[in-house]
Amino acid sequence: MDTLSKQQRHAKAAIKQEQSDACISSAEREQARRSANMAAIHSKDTKPEMIVRRGLWKRGFRYRLNHKRLPGHPDLVLRKYRTCIFVNGCFWHGHGVTLSPVESLELIVNSECCKIPKTNLEFWVNKIRRNKERDKEEQHRLAEMGWHCITVWECELKPSKREETLDSIAFTLNHIYLQDRTGCMKAEVRGKREEELEMSMAAEDGV
After folding, report:
1. Which domain holds residue 185?
2. Which is nearest to 117 in space by CA: 13, 31, 28, 17?
3. CATH number, domain containing residue 86
4. pLDDT one-digit tens code per residue, 171-194
5. CB neighbours of 20 closer than 8 A, spacing ≥ 6?
C-alpha cells in the first residue's frame, strides 16, 4: 500500500508538471532559452578574440589585452603600431543593421549576420543602438588621443574567411607603422631644414 501511494504521488506530480509546462507559451520558452544563451556569453576571452590573438601572435605581432586606461578597454592594444583592435560580436554591436534615427521599430533592417529578435524587440533595439553609439564615441576619443582603431567582426572570422581577415589585419598594421614612420621622418627632415635655414640667416645677419 505504501509503494502504491508513492507511485500515485509521482504520477500526480508528473501530471501537474505537464499542465504547468502547457501553460507556458512558446514565446516565453523562446525568451527563456535566449536569456540563458545570452547569460552564457562572456565579454572576455571569447572565441573570436582568441582567434585574432593567436593569428596575430603567429604573424609576429605582440600586444596587450583589455587596456584599462584607454576608452572602451580595447581587446588588443599594439603600442608599437599605435593601434587598438576591437573584436566585436555581430549581434551585440549591430553589424550591418540599419536603425532609424528616430525611435521607431518599423524602420529596422536586419543584416545577414545580425537579426534582432522579434520578442522584446524594443529592448534589443535600444540596447544595440546604445552599443553602436558607444562604439562610435569611444573610437572618436581614441582617434583624438592619436590611436588608430581596427574593428574585427565575428562573421569575418568564420573558417572560410579567417585567414584572409587575419592577413588583412597584418597588412593594415604594417601600413600604419610605415605611414607613421614616414610621417615622423618627413617631420624630422623638415625640422632640420628649418633649423639650417635659421642658422644660415643668422650667419648672414652677422656679416
Report:
1. 44-206
2. 31
3. 3.40.960.10
4. 999 999 999 888 665 555 555 555
5. none
